[in-house]
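hiii, so i know i said id send this last week but things got crazy w the move. better late than never?? heres the sequnce for the chain we talked about at the cafe, plus the structure i predicted for it. fair warning i was half asleep when i ran it
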Amino acid sequence: MEDRRLEVLRAIVEDFVATQEPVGSKALAERHHLGVSPATLRNDMASLEDEGYVVQPHTSAGRVPTAKGYRLFVDRLSTVKPLSAPERRAIASFLEGAVDLDDVVRRSVRLLAQLTRHVAVVQYPSLQRSSVRHVELVQLQAARLLLVFITDTGRVEQRVVETHEQLLDGQVADLRTALNGAIAERPLDEVPSLLADLADVADAALRPLLTQVITVAMEALVEQPEERIVIGGAANLARATAADFPGTLRPVLEALEEHVVLMRLIGEAHDASTVTVRIGEENELEQLRSTSVVSIGYGGGGRALGGMGVLGPTRMNYAQNITAVQAVARYVGKLLGTP
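okay and structure toks below
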């Protein structure tokens, strides 16, 4: 496309997002220094309409962007407005006040919803992308143990182990040492084979107890990994106009209730350095085809531990939302101790 028509499209998108009103050539000429007359702008807008980037809601009205127009706008978005120093400090201060992983996730959701005024979705660090930091064993009763796994992202998984025989002095410490020696600091996808090897080489006197503990450990970390998400800011959908969600908001609200649906959406964010923007029909889920989703993975060292993002109408401030999602993901990655 000609550079000028790209500038016209950019101006239409920015004005429509700001005003919620169709944008006319006279308004463009007054608000933007495009260096051409309103008549030339009308010709450019007609060309953009012919190519499917904008549409005229009704005769004599201005133009509004289509999903195709938003897509081109986002693809040609060469720069996003960086956060100011006070904004960065405010984000850091808010998130660093978290006391544990649950608090980090809750604060991240609230922060994203406040920064973007859209629905925020944050996935807990995926067990499948985590490593074991430490294994703890606590004797609760003579024949009962509490098995606690702590991951490198701060997630804690715990299970009760019924040993069916009274524990002798020193056995709990021996079990703890054996487990940590085998799987501490190792990725969870390696845990099954490591535990299987441990059971084969363990001391004969310890093997029966160790086998029982390993069985419970496999259930906790491998067989039933719990993937969780948190949603915030659903009330922000009330800010949308009837034109943002033609017909009804019901499909979007129903999708937000289905966490499996949102896990598919946000859990695909495997890159902690690249923002993904899905606009309208680009969303595979039919209920969300009136929305746009801005998402990113969070983590470090080229490894995403989970995903986060915001969901709202296609008429959204993409540059601002991309900046917000990137900033919050970066701080969450730092808080979780990833490089």
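btw Residues 318-335 form the longest helix (18 residues). thought thatd interest u
miss u guys!!
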